[in-house]
Write a structure and sequence with these properties.
Layout lengths: L7 H26 L10 H56 L13 H8 L3 H22 L9 E2 L10 E9 L2 E8 L6 E2 L20 E3 L2 E3 L7 E2 L10 E2 L3 H8 L7 H55 L3 H33 L4
Parallel strand pairs: 1-4
Antiparallel strand pairs: 2-3, 5-6, 7-8
Length: 355
């Protein structure tokens, strides 16, 4: 039935054209963004999953930045330890040289500490002592400057009453809304406790490796910042008295029994050699921890790639299919327009009947 009031054909053609235009807008959006799921209304489930995965991927990117900072902290500490090791080895060589040098500060009669120091200053050993002092000072300077981003693994500042070191946590991962960390104990890295003033029993937990770098029976020597101090034992809370140098202290304490001189040097050399070995062990600890951070970083990179691929599979548009679909819709649009034009000519044909 034909009607001049209701053009059913035009209504149908217009409905089809609107549907085609709606599909074209959606396909054009996919073509422009490269996404078939660009908003929640496109596919709520896929959009939600993809959004969560993207958030996790951004978190992994932040984890990668944190790992890079952690590696820089460890690399700085490692280089600092290596520099300290060089000076400790030079200091050990100085002790070996000093061992066989004669000391003629008196005619065999023990001197007072002040008289001994005045006599010692004119000896060859005093010159070696000055070099030892430079190497010892350098270890403190290197340790103190081995800081990255405000973190120094070689120097702590715990009060003497503390009984244990702290630790440092490095961010290494992120999963299920939780940050994952790896911990390194400061006991494995600390060379100096900057606030250590005495050697009470309670302070043993916070002493650095070089706070008692050289020992022989009943005596402990700390490298800077305390310089060299003589202690009769760990339980002593106050030093007997500071000496100006390491060699002077050793020589002063063997005045009454010169036969002990060689053994005291051997004990000090052996002790320092042990300190160097423990320093090397700490360098190995840092090296192993650095390797673990690299492994975490590589794993996170793989996770990030997998997440990115997964998101793509969920929401990325197939551009070949999208291009083909767009061309088809453009053709349908043209046909829809023509169909609407034909439908709109029907009332004109009816008007011819009234002429």
């Amino acid at each position: 039935m034909s009607s001049i009031l209701t053009n059913a054909g035009a209504i149908s053609a217009l409905h089809t054209l609107r549907s085609i235009n709606s599909d074209m807008v959606r396909v054009q959006d996919q073509f422009a963004t490269g996404l078939r799921v660009n908003r929640a209304s496109d596919n709520a489930a896929y959009w939600s999953i993809a959004t969560t995965m993207r958030s996790d991927n951004k978190a992994l990117s932040a984890v990668g930045d944190s790992i890079a900072i952690g590696q820089a902290i460890l690399d700085t500490a490692y280089q600092g330890m290596d520099g300290v090791r060089t000076h400790l080895e030079a200091l050990k060589n100085n002790l070996i040289t000093a061992r066989d040098l004669p000391l003629s500060t008196s005619n065999g009669a023990p001197l007072s500490f002040s008289d001994f120091l005045r006599a010692f200053e004119g000896s060859t050993l005093a010159k070696i002592d000055a070099e030892i002092d430079q190497h010892a000072a350098a270890t403190w300077t290197i340790a103190k400057s081995s800081s990255f981003n405000g973190v120094n693994l070689l120097v702590n500042s715990y009060d003497d009453t503390e009984t244990s070191y702290s630790h440092l946590d490095f961010v290494v991962g992120y999963a299920d809304g939780a940050v994952q960390t790896a911990r390194i104990d400061r006991a494995d890295t600390t060379l100096y406790n900057a606030n250590l003033q005495n050697f009470p029993a309670g302070a043993l937990g916070t002493m650095g490796l070089l706070d008692a770098a050289i020992t022989y029976p009943g005596h402990y020597y700390s490298l800077p910042p305390l310089k060299y101090h003589l202690y009769p034992g760990i339980g002593q809370t106050e030093p007997l008295g500071p000496s100006t140098s390491l060699l002077a202290t050793i020589e002063f304490n063997v005045q009454n029994d010169p036969a002990l001189r060689a053994s005291r040097y051997d004990e000090a050399i052996s002790s320092l050699d042990g300190t160097i070995e423990r320093l090397v062990d700490r360098m190995a600890t840092i090296g192993a921890f650095t390797s673990s951070l690299k492994a975490y970083d590589a794993f996170n990179q793989k996770r990030s790639d997998a997440l990115e691929k997964g998101v793509g599979q969920l929401v990325d548009a197939d551009m070949n299919e999208t291009s083909t679909r767009l061309k088809a819709l453009q053709a349908q649009e043209q046909l829809g327009i023509q169909a609407l034009q034909i439908a709109n000519t029907t009332p004109q044909a009816i008007l011819q009947l009234f002429r």
